[in-house]
């Protein structure tokens, strides 16, 4: 078994119109043994920037602590939050400097940049970035996530108009949730519910999705 599969994981980020969704499963396992069903894999950097860390759980938590430290230094020096593109370069540099003894993590970064333009990317454990305009995935469920997202994604998913009132981005939430649930059902190392974040220029919605627990 690969060390990346030791704890099991599934992370996906998807772009909407001036918003994005980032979601992960909630299972923490030791190979086929389930340890916890409320494990956090998506972390906040600031109000418009989030990172999901798949792979070895202990390395994910260590890497996140380093990233928080570096971002706080940036805030003190620059007196502003880091742009998503800048943060992605920081994560890439931190991973690459540890390339001979890497963090066994595959990050997914999602944020809103200038003019609230969504930015998403993922990278391997050595920091090689992969940029996308639609969705990115990582974790043991990657293959089935790619298939589910390819079939369900469509551009500019955003608000539904209902009785002339603008509601929350239900379409994006439904799409990313269904893609995540359909994928982890085909992976015995991930699942046990999902955690979904929808981030718009004005608000952040957090939801827990119930899934199969067998």
From TrEMBL:
One of its GO terms (biological process) is proteasome-mediated ubiquitin-dependent protein catabolic process. It holds the Pfam family Proteasome. GO terms for cellular component: cytoplasm; nucleus; proteasome core complex, beta-subunit complex. Keywords: Cytoplasm, Nucleus, Proteasome. It is found in: Cytoplasm; Nucleus. InterPro entries: Ntn_hydrolases_N (IPR029055), Proteasome_beta_3 (IPR033811), Proteasome_bsu_CS (IPR016050), Proteasome_sua/b (IPR001353), Proteasome_suB-type (IPR023333). Component of the proteasome complex. Component of the proteasome, a multicatalytic proteinase complex which is characterized by its ability to cleave peptides with Arg, Phe, Tyr, Leu, and Glu adjacent to the leaving group at neutral or slightly basic pH. The proteasome has an ATP-dependent proteolytic activity. Belongs to the peptidase T1B family. This is Proteasome subunit beta. It comes from Panicum virgatum (Blackwell switchgrass).
